[in-house]
Design a protein that fits this description.
CATH topology of the largest domain: TIM Barrel
Strand order of the largest sheet: 6-7-9-10-11-12-13-14
Shape: globular
Largest sheet: 8 strands, mixed, barrel
Structural class: alpha/beta
Number of strands: 15
Strand content: 15-25%
CATH superfamily of the largest domain: EAL domain
Distance between the termini: 30 Å
Bound molecules: ligand C2E, magnesium ion
CATH class of the largest domain: Alpha Beta
CATH architecture of the largest domain: Alpha-Beta Barrel
């Protein structure tokens, strides 16, 4: 699951639109995206009364512009006045130029406007826009029924040898071989459940614990890579680093030393960098990333296209790979806007000599499109979910025997 997933489940949404058909459509799309805490109002006046008289608060307000009595622009003025600090999304049948002006207006009013969608819109456009929401760490930390670990539990778990590493194959589109796998952290809970990273990474990122966690994931991944090389499976491993864990000036030396201990070349390791929280020391992180590159590690910009991973970073740092976020990949075959983003990201990558990985590929249809557009590598449930380390060799053997590989 991506970071956004737990967040999507937890947000509270208010939808203001007098068109019943649009209400039904949004209901369907939101449910599909795992968002079930939504409320509809057919007029801005009713929405305003909810917020003022009933003191309701929302994480996201979606509003139409053209409504009887109180229109969307008046509603925006109200939201600004009450200092509404959640996200705002506009949906309207008006033309794009007007929608652009409304976005400018929202910015000028200090509203957190995440975009404007022209009706009719599709599920993927909605999903892309939701990706623009600034995900706050506390919301990311848990989904209903799934409690995030506490810092103490993480600290204790780290001394007992948690986390566990799962691996997800990355498939080369031209040869259909598996040159690399991504290491994804999992947590073994005391009751035997395997917990996803959204339940512990955001908490760890709030403190120094992220450093210990990252080091353990790195050591275990390199150890596993050395084991596979010893067994004749020559591959690379990609390891996730949040920006905050890169704020240690000694990191390039530490990671090189670990590689030396296991006789693994840094050339076989890709550092995937995601920015999920605010950095304290950007200059240190940039220094560290540049020296990691000098030591031979490959650098990849993860979740590309989301609010966190910007084109600006591509310009600043020696990345050799872009991982396009699954928000633009899943359902791309049916979405004009996802396709446009994929096309331009792939074209940009090619011009800069950077490899493109598309992650979150779930269907044959999306895979065909990605191949046609020229993506270099694909990753996703269509090929394999992340799997336990000791199942990987068997999976690779089956894959190589199957008709997928050449
Ligand atoms: P990521 O690095 O972008 O990893 C890809 C995520 O997408 C993984 O979620 C993977 O299981 C999921 N995924 C892959 N294919 C599909 C698909 O076809 N459909 C869907 N719906 N999902 C797919 P996971 O393992 O839950 O990891 C979530 C995020 O947690 C990762 O996103 C990464 O940012 C972070 N993470 C994982 N391990 C570590 C770690 O060791 N350190 C740090 N700092 N972050 C980590
Ligand atoms: Mg990653
Ligand atoms: Mg990613």
């Amino acid at each position: 699951m991506s970071n956004a997933e737990g967040f999507e489940k937890k947000i509270k949404v208010l939808i203001v639109d007098n068109d019943e058909h649009v209400q039904q459509q949004l209901k369907l799309y939101f449910t599909d995206l795992g968002i079930d805490n939504y409320q509809f109002e057919s007029s801005a006046a009713a929405a305003m009364s909810n917020m003022v008289q009933q003191q309701q608060s929302y994480d996201l307000v979606v509003t139409d512009l053209n409504m009887p009595n109180v229109d969307g622009i008046t509603f925006m003025r109200f939201l600004s006045k009450v200092e509404y600090d959640g996200a705002l999304m506009i949906i309207s049948g008006e033309d794009r130029r007007l929608l652009n002006s409304v976005v400018q207006l929202g910015n000028a009013q200090n509203l957190n406007i995440i975009g404007a969608m022209q009706k009719p819109f599709d599920r993927n456009e909605l999903r892309l826009m939701l990706g623009q929401m600034q995900l706050s760490a506390d919301k990311l930390a848990c989904a209903p029924g799934e409690l995030s670990l506490t810092a103490d539990e993480i600290r204790q778990g780290l001394t007992r040898g948690n986390p566990e590493i799962y691996f997800q194959p990355k498939v080369a589109v031209d040869s259909m071989s598996v040159p690399s796998l991504e290491a994804l952290a999992r947590w073994c809970a005391e009751d035997g459940r395997i917990l996803g990273p959204h339940l512990f990474i955001p908490v760890a990122e709030q403190s120094e614990l992220i450093n210990d966690l990252t080091d353990q994931v790195f050591i275990k991944s390199v150890e596993q890579l050395a084991r596979w090389h010893g067994q004749g499976f020559i591959c690379s491993v990609a390891i996730n680093f949040s920006m905050r864990s890169l704020e240690r000036i000694s990191l390039p030396d530490t990671l090189s030393a670990i590689c030396g201990d296991y006789k693994v070349s840094p050339q076989n390791i890709t550092i995937e960098i995601t920015e999920t929280c605010i950095m304290n020391q950007e200059a240190v992180a940039l220094d560290v990333i540049t020296r990691l590159h000098l030591k031979g590690f490959s650098l990849s910009i993860d979740d590309f296209g989301t609010g966190y991973s910007s084109i600006e970073k591509l310009n600043k740092l020696p990345f050799s790979e872009i991982k396009i976020d699954r928000a633009f990949v899943d359902g791309a075959a049916d979405s004009y806007s996802s396709r446009a983003i994929l096309e331009s990201s792939i074209a940009m990558g090619k011009k800069m000599g950077i490899s493109i990985v598309s992650e979150g590929v779930e269907t044959q249809q999306d895979f065909e499109l990605l191949r046609e557009l020229g993506t270099d590598y694909v990753q996703g449930a269509f090929f394999s979910e992340p799997i336990a380390a000791d199942s990987v060799l068997q999976w690779v053997e089956n894959w190589n025997k199957s008709s997928h590989s050449s």
